[in-house]
Amino acid sequence: MRKLWIAAAIAALPLGAHAEGHYVPGIEGVKGASVPPAGNYYIGYFVNYNVDSLKAPGSDNNIPGSNEGTVTALAHRLVHMTDKKVLGADYGMEAIVPMVKKDFDFQAAGYNKSKSGIADVYLGPVVLGWHGDRWDAVGAAGFWLDSANSDELASPGNGYKGTMLTGGGTAYLNPDKSVSASALLRYELNGKKDGGFEPGDQLTMEWGLGKKLNAATEVGLVGYDQWQTTKDKGVGATDDKFSKHAVGLEGSYTVKSLGGIVKAAYYNEYDVKAGSGPAPSGNTFRLNFVKPF
């Protein structure tokens, strides 16, 4: 009976790499709230999320047994910043196309599968960037499409649409702007799945404290925090809400021969509490490349 309960709980696990929403935390860090000037930009994100345990619904206790897996993603993001002004800010737009592979071995439920494909696509028609002498700010809005296969846990898609609102800022703490502190907030309003289950809304905060060592190199302390802000709805929903917290390190280097910036970061999740369903807990490695074109 206990194994059947665990199997049912794992079957209800959200289809994304982390929690209920589409947005994967940890892809932005130092100066994550700073928008580039007018131009076209490609940002490639390689993300590897390693699941080393599952938290039981409504708690921070591990589900017994070996419950491991990896989610590997290569997300292609295109950003177009115009020379037009809206509310005193630079106006732009963006799109994200993620390619995902999920490989799960949840022995407690007898679930061992691997799938890959293009995940749900994000379209952002509004990106606003403000810039001051020693500060930057961002506001944005967009939509996650229900565009990918989502027939089971290892499928690349989440199985529902969503709206994402973004806001944040970067402060430069000294006159030469070599020391920075930033926070980027993403609020996701999640839609309903075909079966009627509706995940609660989610707030994600990514933060970074950075120090430029020279013109090409920057290092920093980074982290992310996630909170479910509204209750799940539908069959299997409870009053429990998930939360997740991680801290890590980031480094970046401007590569002149490539004409862009390479960033790398590692995060360790130190506190995870599950909501209605089990919540994965683990660590994240992220590598991204920013190139104007």
Keyword list:
mainly beta, 1 helix, about 290 residues, twelve-stranded antiparallel β-barrel, disordered N terminus
Report on the architecture of this protein:
There is one protein chain. The chain has 1 helix and 13 strands, in the order H-E-E-E-E-E-E-E-E-E-E-E-E-E. The protein has a 12-stranded antiparallel barrel. The protein has 293 residues and is mainly beta. The protein starts with a helix and ends with a strand. Helix content is 3%, strand content 58%.
How would you spell out the order of helices and strands? HEEEEEEEEEEEEE
- What's the average pLDDT? 92
Which structural class do the helices and strands define? mainly beta
Which range best describes the helical content: under 10%, 10-25%, 25-40%, 40-55%, 55-70% or over 70%? under 10%
The parts where pLDDT drops under 50 for at least 5 residues are 1-8, 11-19
Gross geometry? globular
Strand order of the largest sheet: 1-2-3-5-6-7-8-9-10-11-12-13
Quaternary state of the chains = single chain
Radius of gyration: 19 Å
Strand content: over 45%
Question: Distance between the terminal alpha carbons, to the nearest Å?
Answer: 58 Å
The major sheet is characterized as: 12 strands, antiparallel, barrel
Number of strands: 13
List the helices and strands and how they pair.
Layout: H1 2-11, E1 39-55, E2 67-86, E3 89-106, E4 111-118, E5 122-131, E6 135-144, E7 162-172, E8 179-190, E9 202-212, E10 217-228, E11 243-255, E12 260-273, E13 279-292
Antiparallel strand pairs: 1-2, 1-13, 2-3, 3-4, 3-5, 5-6, 6-7, 7-8, 8-9, 9-10, 10-11, 11-12, 12-13
